Amino acid sequence: MHIPDGLVGGGTSLGASVIATGTVVVCLRRTGQVLDERQIPMVGLTAAFVFAAQMVNFPVASGTSGHLLGGVLAAVLVGPWAGALAVTVVLIVQAMLFADGGLSALGLNVINMALVGALGGYAIFAGLRALLPRTRRAVVVASGIAAALAPVMAAVMFTIEYAIGGNGATSVGTVATAMIGVHALIGIGEGVMTAMVLSAVLATRPDLVHGAGLVRFAEPVPIIEIETVGASR
Amino acid sequence: MKGHASIGGFVCCGLLVALLLAFVVSRQASSSPDGLVKVAADKSLDTNIRTHFMSGAPLANYSVTGIHDSGLSTGTAGIIGVTITFGAAFGLSKLVRATRSRAVADNTSA
Predict the structure, then answer these.
(1) B2: DSSP letter
(2) A162-207 residue pLDDT tens
(3) Distance from CA of A214 to the nearest CA of B (A)
(4) In this complex, is the C-beta atom of B70 within 8 Å of any C-beta atom belonging to chain A?
(5) Do A182 and B38 touch (CB under 8 A)?
(6) Which CA distances in Å does A46 have to A136, A170, B38?
(7) Which of A75-79, A215-219, B38-42 is predicted with the least confidence, judged by mean pLDDT?
(8) Nearest CA in chain A to B54
(9) How far is A128 from chain B (nearest CA, A)?
(10) What ipTM, to 2 d.p.?
(11) Does the pLDDT of residue B100 top 80, yes or no?
(12) Contacts of residue B10 in chain A, CB cutoff 8 Å?
């Protein structure tokens, strides 16, 4: 899912970098307002885990692979703002040290994977949480569905970027069909892995899952209200 | 209050899982191009792609220059990446949190 340099034109890439930088600044400010002291190492762990998971490409269709994008996982674990920052850190480390994802394309990649994944994905997660019963299982189901949709949303965003400034003669419709098709398959992997990791964390330390504290549980689970604790200081 | 239970142990366990993914499981990763790269190649979107500015770097493409065993090279690059990413995200959130603490002293509407 990492866009290399030159796939999307310079003007569009620059515009994307401006939008990405502005949104990341908002994420930094919001994180500063809501992050609890105890979540600081969790943000580090979340980023480290997403980096590691992104190294493990899994096969999808013939001759194609995909990897976890991790936006929804990060957002449900540490909240959407810090989650978007965690994935942004991963993308910067990958571009700067591992030659994965272009430098001029960094803004595009931050938009597609960190912002669409963590902020957009979290909005879907929160919407589903409102519809589903207030149980721990619902947290897993809602995050699995949101995570399954995140790669498709990233594929749609890439198609928009290609439509604006793509360096290619291929029609936007052809690119959209191919991108959405393959990322729907990758989304299945993203959804399953996100649900598995979150159910493991919820089974051991539900108090460390930000998204579990969104609404009260019917079952007596000791969830701390992370945002309330942070805001009271 | 359970909210104050230590999270050091949990974070250490989580990091161990991340390091295992990066050092061991990464060797089993599919070497096929990912969805975007495959589409770019199939649909000829990639004619203007430029070589990455870090393509000659010691960790480029998740392998360490000088380590010839490909599994060990990928695994070592993974350990370095996990460590740097943890440090960067931990440091950034600590910094952002510290900035907030100062701001709150002036403005109590957090």
Answers:
(1) G
(2) 999 988 889 999 999 999 999 999 999 999 999 999 999 999 999 9
(3) 16
(4) no
(5) yes
(6) 20, 37, 28
(7) A215-219
(8) A99
(9) 26
(10) 0.91
(11) no
(12) 204-205, 208
Mark yes or no for CB contact B62/A45 under 8 Å. Answer: no
Q: How far apart (Å, rounded) are the C-alpha atoms in residues A56 and A181?
A: 21
Question: How would you classify residue B100: left for phi > 0, otherwise alpha for psi between -120 and 50, otherwise beta?
Answer: alpha
Contact A56 B26 (CB under 8 A): yes
Predicted structure pTM score: 0.91
Give residue-wise pLDDT tens across range A216-226: 444 444 455 44
Residue among A43, A50, A67 minimizing CB distance to B93: A43
